[in-house]
Design a protein that fits this description.
The complex is a heterodimer of chains A (1017) and B (453). With 1017 residues, chain A is mainly beta. Helices cover 8% and strands 48% of the residues of chain A. Chain A has a 22-stranded antiparallel beta barrel. Chain A has a five-stranded mixed sheet with strand order 11-16-17-14-15. In chain A, strands 1, 2, 5 and 8 form a four-stranded mixed sheet that branches. In chain A, helix 8 crosses helix 9. Chain A is globular, with a radius of gyration of 32 Å. Chain B has two domains: 205 residues, Serine Threonine Protein Phosphatase 5, Tetratricopeptide repeat; 174 residues, Serine Threonine Protein Phosphatase 5, Tetratricopeptide repeat. Chain B has 18 helices and eleven strands. In chain B, a hairpin with a 5-residue loop joins strand 10 and strand 11. In chain B, helix 6 packs antiparallel against helix 7, helix 8 packs across helix 13 and helix 9 packs antiparallel against helix 13. Chain B is globular and about 110 Å long. The N and C termini of chain B lie far apart (79 Å).
Chain lengths: 1017, 453
């Protein structure tokens, strides 16, 4: 026994003699650096530096290799030879190749990425005055087209990554915030209804406006955004990643960091980027009388018979008016924003909390917006093995939107000779009067959204990690409206109260295995995910009110109720292998199996694999001689299949909708389902190179890709004899759509020294969208709210069949048209040959219009000189076109009814034989409604999206650590060739791809000046 | 190792099962649930509801085509349809979609019912008879109407004959007017047979009255006489003294027999929301909102000029701003759509009797005088005119009584091969227009089914 004790004692002492503690400090320059990883590469033990940069690494033996690493800094290694206290100085890495990119369900450093992921730092999005954070991405990421809806508060933003990959199914990318899938679109919208829900049952009228759900995400909370573009990156999201994925990571605080308090105050004013150039009263009268006379009417009868005097107006009164109707709908906008955040942490806990308040009156009269948002992110390491994470945010929005059918949208419905008010103070012609519509049609939307994510991570054994994660997203809106009977032809007063609730819950369980076998790094992920989405809406409509102070539907003479409910589920099994050999040869394999309740029982499951290879050739030894010039070069290739199931939840079912007849239940066939309905699948292939030159001074990426979407989910025409109420279409899988293109992105560190930094960046992308097949058909006409859209093989989705307008005949002043045969006819000749002009136009249509830009991109530069800084971002699009809404046609033919405003270009009308002009002879002929390409406008633009300059400094004393003062100009310069009847080249009103060419009313965008103050404590 | 196995087992248990993927529509009905009398009745109601859209423009378009009305040039939207050229150019395809598509929806419903296993559904015999009676009545009205609007006089080809539910990928071919007429007659008799046992939404008398209309326009005057006589002698209906009450009361008027009711509680999305908007308000007496105005050259206008005190003009027409509007026949946009009312039975009975026998009886004269006297007409018939003279009288009387009510004037003029006159006073003979005035099929249907007209 004694002998054993002696041996044990000797061994124990000996062991401890050889295993010691290593203490030290890690610095950058002379400043301590907390959170640095200190790893004993020999025995795998590790620790982190504390707030003072100090560390204690235990059980270190002679000869052990110790590595010090920290993101953005060059790693260092030492060999332990008995030191007891050391000081390590880390230097910043210029390569930024160790920058961490969030990928699906994990992260990778940039150098090891073989898929296509672009990253945007949150700093670039902070303090953005655009309605929603996605808008601030415009021009920053190659291949991502961003189109803002309008200058309305909370308006929608259309995002397309590498083109539109679908026809009927939603083509929006997937948005994931801290691991929670968040639906895009409006609060009031059933996200998977591509036509939008602009006119739900019981609505008072069609309205194309809603509050963008994503506008409630506080840009100041965003740490980074990763845009996943190719199949390899998106495959891990399988079923919903076909249109690309946008990962948003919010700020988290830091371990061992001190508490940082930030406050931001921002004040802005805004104006419309452009107003339409319309005629004044005198000009209108001149043109109207000319049209009256040209049509063979007696000039003496003009005032009595033309219809120009409406609603009791006299000639004498009319001649005193010169109303600028645009001014009734537009104003100078104001915004106040305050943001407060607190972040920090200790050894095992870090947190981030924020509060944001925004109050805004946009450029649209009547649009009032208030938003309150709060966030709490918390990570806590319960012990060495167990970690808890909670991310949550809540937003409340009170919005009074103004749809384009109201306010400024009605400016074209009134002529300058008409007053806003009559002599007795009442509204003139209230049905059409924008002021009356704004003041007598009350609208309020109360929106609330909650996004929450709870996650538990357990290292149950070395190299294995189990993660269970529950995400929940809740969106609700209450839409209250009251429209006075003065605005309705029937005189009826309407009220509506609509409530919409949308929830999405996700439960996923992952096992992650990571290990290093010599030079081989392996990261394996397997997982299971279940998601459920629910939607319900209740709408109460009241009609008929005798007392103007009673405004709720419950008090109406007649009450109508509507209810809608739907839900869908997804179930997924997935796995991913990331492998690299010495950080040189990279491989990523993903396999995913998804099922959706939206498809027939025999077709619910889809299999979506992906693979990518990368070769960091610059890591090869033979590359050493090139390294002074090309310090980094990587070749990438990826291939994969992803799916899309973004269709209405019950498209596969043949269903009957309920109605009433004489108080009894009625049924009508509402949808014919295809029980063979299945996944739309997109096969993507991408070739790319990433490189850095001159020690990272020049960084670039070039990618070439092709995405082919098969089994398109679209509304395939069926015979009317099938008896579907209101439509002869069945959602089916048929057809093929292709997007192919090239993306280039470059960044330059032009000057970098102690006092002066100058960087620049440039990106450009080209995407070509083409419908390759539609089954046995060459084309399909899909009916819509504003006429039909044609899908044509060999053309982009959203192209329209339009009659070919050639110009104006100098001899007669009539419009000139091109027949399919190639002959050019005047209006008179067309009428004579076809019976009437409308018949000619309907029978001589050709595919026209380019719904998508050929090129998109942006360029930016930023400078810093001591405490001063400035940056500018220009964005551009080239090649897209836009088809005018009906109101523009009314402006061409305004004199049939003498009740529509006119663009100033009408002053250039034809008057005498020989006149060369593009404006035909004025007459009182009625509107020609069939679409023609006269109303297609190019919408190329170069826009100064952002100009910021500011001054920051650290006060020498006091509790304020950092002060940043800035001025930011947004959309302040725009160069465009858009036709004068468009407010702005950026127009977006719907996510419906079939109407990509437009046809909705054009409304202004906003340009703004913001001044702000950021304080850090 | 044990830990690894444990976690993988736990992990797999956390996976969801396939039941998770079952989501069926919580609102509305899927087709597998149409298996009882309640849903069969609902299908009938759905088909009746479709009639409002089916007949949406069946008043305005025929009145324009026959020249009874013309459209004012200023309708507030700048639209101006020169309807008088239809006699030479034919109807535009734009006008036909409503009737074609709505009929298909209604045909789907009634064919579903007729081909369903009603016999073995739970319910009383009366309930089953009611369901089948309504289904056959609806089908008879559909076939009768589409025959009248879609038949090509030159070839005799017409609307497809649909006796079963048509699948989404099925092709059909055009039928003949003869076949459609035969089917309409078969269905109306079945409707009468079933509804005689038990009334459904509509009654035996409603079916009988419509049977009278069918046979009348099929020129089967003996049967037309029988049916009209049965309705009149039933005593279930009586004439209103104030004619405007007919249209204000609609379905509840004492003289309406078959009506499509505007259900104000119906809020189902239909076109632009709720029950179909059929633009009855375009008959309003307003130069700015009214659209259809009486053609001064038309037969109706001449008859009005001849007897301006006739209640059918004084109570139902309104003159304003130099135009004449049929405002009180359509007092609101929610007016019920009247398909058959009692005066038509008197007119039909009298004319059918004369057509059969080529002679005039006192009962025939009395029938017409009932209609005239209610309207306070100045030209009450005295004595017993000749058959040809009486037929002229009846033609005029029917024109005065049923003008601007569905398409009676158009069908009647075609039946008797009368001329039509346009807003400029130009006349078009039967031979001029008979091969023009039919509804074209929607182009996509022609292409899909390869219709050969």
């Amino acid at each position: 026994m004694k002998y054993k004790l002696l041996v044990f004692f000797i061994l124990y002492v000996g062991f401890n003699a050889f295993s010691q503690d290593l203490r030290g400090t890690v610095l950058i320059g002379s400043d301590p650096l907390p959170g640095v990883n200190v790893i004993n590469l020999t025995n795998g033990k590790g620790t982190l530096t504390n707030f003072d940069g100090n560390f204690i690494l235990t059980n270190v033996s002679q000869g052990d290799e110790i590595e010090f690493s920290y993101i953005g800094f060059e790693s260092q290694k030492i060999t332990y030879d008995g030191q007891t206290n050391i000081s390590v100085v880390l230097t910043e890495s210029s390569e930024q190749l160790d920058e961490v990119y969030v990928t699906g369900y994990g992260s990778q450093i940039r150098k090891n990425l073989s898929s296509v992921i672009s990253k945007v730092d949150g700093d670039l999005l902070a303090n953005t005055p655009v309605p929603s954070f996605e808008g601030a991405l415009q021009g920053r990421v190659a291949g991502v087209q961003i189109t803002s809806g309008s200058g309305m508060s909370g308006s929608s933003v259309k995002v397309r990554i590498r083109g539109t990959g679908s026809v009927l199914a939603n083509a929006d990318p997937l948005y994931v915030i801290d691991g929670v899938v968040v639906p895009s679109g409006g609060y009031d919208q059933n996200s998977y209804d591509p036509q939008g829900d602009n006119y739900p049952a019981g609505a008072i009228a069609f309205q194309d406006v809603d509050t963008n759900v994503l506008s409630t995400i506080n840009p100041n909370d965003i740490e980074s955004i990763e845009v996943l573009k190719d199949a390899s990156a998106t495959a891990i999201y399988g079923s919903r990643g076909a249109n690309g994925v946008i990962l948003i990571t919010t700020k988290k605080g830091s371990y061992n960091g001190k508490t940082v308090v930030e406050a931001n105050f921002d004040y802005g004013i805004s104006e419309a980027t452009r107003k339409l150039d319309l005629v004044n009263a005198e000009e209108y009268l001149m043109l109207a009388q000319e049209a009256w006379y040209n049509s063979g009417n007696n000039p003496i009868d003009f005032w009595s018979n033309s219809g120009i005097l409406q609603d009791g107006l006299t000639k004498e009164e009319a001649l005193t008016n010169n109303t600028n109707w645009q001014d009734q709908g537009l104003r100078t906008g104001f915004s106040n924003k305050m943001n407060l955040s607190i972040s920090g942490g200790a050894d095992s806990t870090r947190f981030f909390a924020s509060f944001n308040a925004l109050e805004e009156e946009s450029i649209f009269v009547g649009n009032e917006y208030m938003s309150l948002a709060t966030r709490l992110n918390l990570d806590h390491k319960i012990n060495d093995k167990l970690k808890l994470s909670i991310n949550s945010s809540f937003t409340s929005v009170d919005n009074s939107p103004v749809p384009s059918q109201n306010g400024i949208g009605r400016a074209m419905d009134m002529i300058p000779l008409w007053p806003v008010y009559k002599a007795d103070g009442s509204y003139f012609y209230p049905e059409r009067n924008p002021t009356a519509n704004l003041e007598l049609w009350e609208q309020q939307r109360l929106n609330k959204s909650f996004i929450g994510n709870w996650s538990l991570e357990y290292k149950f054994i070395d190299n294995f990690k189990f993660i269970t994660d529950f995400g929940y997203n809740f969106v609700s809106t209450e839409n209250k409206q009251y429209r006075d009977g003065l605005l309705d032809p029937t005189g009826e007063t309407f009220a509506m109260q609509r409530k919409v609730n949308k929830t999405a819950s996700t439960f996923k369980n992952l096992i992650n295995y990571t290990n290093v076998f010599g030079d081989h790094n392996v990261d394996v992920l397997v997982g299971i995910e279940a998601q459920k989405n629910s939607y319900d809406s209740s709408n109460l409509q009241g009609v008929g009110y005798d007392i103007s102070t009673i405004k709720t539907p419950a008090d109406a003479e007649r009450i109508n109720g509507f209810y809608e409910q739907s839900s869908s589920t997804f179930l997924s099994y997935f796995s991913r292998l990331n492998y690299d050999y010495r950080g040189k040869y990279l491989l990523s394999l993903t396999a995913r199996r998804d099922a959706s309740s939206r498809f027939g029982k025999n077709n619910q499951w889809g299999f979506f694999p992906a693979a990518s290879l990368g070769y960091n050739i610059s890591e090869e030894s033979f590359f050493d001689s090139l390294r002074p010039v090309v310090n980094y070069l990587k070749f990438r290739v990826s291939y994969g299949i992803s799916g899309n199931a973004s269709i209405p939840d019950y498209a596969q079912y043949s269903s009957y909708v309920a109605n009433n007849y004489q108080g009894g239940l009625g049924l009508s066939l509402d949808n014919i389902g295809d029980d063979e309905l299945s996944w739309e699948s997109t096969t993507s292939i991408n070739y790319g190179i990433s490189f850095q030159l001159f020690d990272g001074k020049v960084k670039g990426e070039v990618d070439i890709y092709k995405k082919t979407t098969d089994d398109l989910l679209l509304q395939y025409p069926i015979a009317g004899t099938a008896g579907v109420l209101g439509g002869d279409f069945m959602t089916s899988n048929v057809g093929t759509l292709e997007n192919k293109g090239v993306e280039l992105g470059f960044n330059f560190d032009l000057v970098e020294n102690d006092d002066f930094y100058w960087t620049a960046g440039f990106n450009v992308a080209q995407n070509i969208n083409e419908l390759k097949s539609l089954g046995v058909l060459e084309g399909i006409e899909i009916g819509g709210l504003f006429g039909s859209t044609t899908l044509l093989v060999g053309h982009p989705v959203g192209v329209q069949n339009l009659a070919d307008w050639v110009g104006v005949d100098p001899a007669s002043g009539q419009d000139l048209w091109k027949e399919l045969s190639g002959d050019i006819l005047t209006t008179g000749q067309a009428e004579s040959k076809y019976g009437n002009l409308e018949t000619f136009l309907n029978n001589n249509r050709v595919p026209s219009g380019n719904p998508y830009p050929d090129f998109t991109g942006g360029f930016n530069t930023s400078v810093e000189y001591k405490n001063w800084y400035g940056s500018v971002l220009f964005t551009f699009e080239y090649g897209a076109e836009y088809l005018a809404a009906g109101e523009t046609k009314l402006a061409k033919f305004p004199f049939a009814t003498m009740s529509n405003n006119i663009h100033r270009q009408q002053l250039n009308r034809w008057r005498n034989p020989g006149d060369i002009t593009n404006v035909s002879r004025l007459t009182t002929d009625p509107v020609i409604w069939p679409d023609t390409d006269e109303f297609v406008s190019p919408v190329d633009f170069l826009r100064m999206r952002d100009l910021t300059f500011g001054y920051r400094f650290q006060p020498s004393s006091g509790f304020i650590n950092n002060v940043n003062l800035y001025v930011k100009l947004t959309n302040y310069l725009t160069f465009t060739n858009a036709k004068p009847w468009l407010y702005d080249p950026e127009n977006y009103r719907t996510s419906d791809n079939t109407n990509a060419l437009g046809k909705y009313k054009s409304v202004p965008q906003a340009k703004s000046i913001n001044v702000g103050l950021n304080l850090k404590f | 190792m044990k830990k690894i196995i444990f976690f993988f087992l736990t992990f797999s248990l956390l996976a969801a099962c396939d039941d998770f993927l079952e989501e069926s529509p919580p609102t509305g009905l899927t087709s597998d649930k149409l298996n009882d009398l309640v849903t069969m009745r609902a299908l009938n109601n759905g088909a009746y509801k479709n009639f409002r859209e089916f007949y949406a423009y069946a008043t305005t378009i025929p009145s324009l085509a026959i020249g009874d009305s013309f459209m004012l040039p200023n309708d507030g939207a700048g639209n101006y349809i020169n309807a008088t050229t239809w006699a030479t150019t034919g109807f535009s395809q734009v006008l036909t979609g409503e009737m074609y598509n709505s009929s298909m929806s209604a045909f789907h419903n009634v064919n579903y019912i007729i081909n369903a296993d009603i016999t073995n559904m739970a319910g009383t015999e009366n309930e089953k008879n009611a369901v089948l009676g309504d289904a056959h009545l609806i089908k008879a009205v559909l076939n009768f109407t589409v025959d009248k609007f879609f038949t090509r006089n030159a070839s005799g080809n017409s609307f497809p004959l649909l006796n079963t539910v048509v699948g989404p990928n099925e092709k059909v071919s055009l039928s003949t007017s003869i076949a459609l007429r035969a089917q309409a007659e078969t269905d109306i008799e079945l409707a009468r047979q079933y509804l005689k046992q038990s009334a459904g939404v509509n009654t035996y008398m409603a079916a009988t009255a419509f049977a009278a209309k069918i046979y009348f326009f099929h020129k089967k005057y003996d049967l037309a006489y029988e049916r009209a006589n049965e309705v009149i002698t039933s005593g279930q209906f009586s004439l209103e003294s104030d004619m405007s009450n007919i249209y204000l009361n609609g379905d509840t008027s004492t003289e309406t027999i078959l009506t499509i009711v505007t259900d104000l509680t119906d809020t189902t999305p239909s076109n632009w929301g709720g029950y179909a908007t059929v633009n009855f308000d375009r008959f309003e007496a307003s130069k700015s909102t009214g659209l259809f105005t009486l053609n001064p050259y038309s037969l109706v206008a001449q008859l009005r000029n001849a007897d301006p005190s006739d209640l059918r003009f004084t109570q139902l027409f309104e003159e304003k701003d130099g135009f004449v509007f049929m405002a009180s026949k359509y007092p609101t946009n929610e007016t019920d759509q009247i398909i058959v009312r009692l005066p038509e039975m008197y007119l039909t009975r009298a004319e059918s009797n004369i057509m059969n026998s080529n002679s005039v009886t006192s009962t025939d004269v009395a029938d017409i005088n009932v209609v005239k006297n209610r309207a306070g007409a100045a030209d009450t018939i005295t004595g017993t005119p000749s058959a040809s003279a009486m037929l002229d009288i009846i033609y005029n009387e029917r024109s005065k009584e049923l003008c601007f009510e569905l398409f009676d004037r158009l069908l009647n003029s075609v039946r008797l091969e009368k001329d039509i006159v346009d807003q400029n006073g130009s006349t078009y003979s039967y031979g001029d227009y008979i091969n023009k005035l039919y509804y074209p099929f929607p182009q996509e249907e022609i292409d899909y089914h390869n219709f050969e007209e």
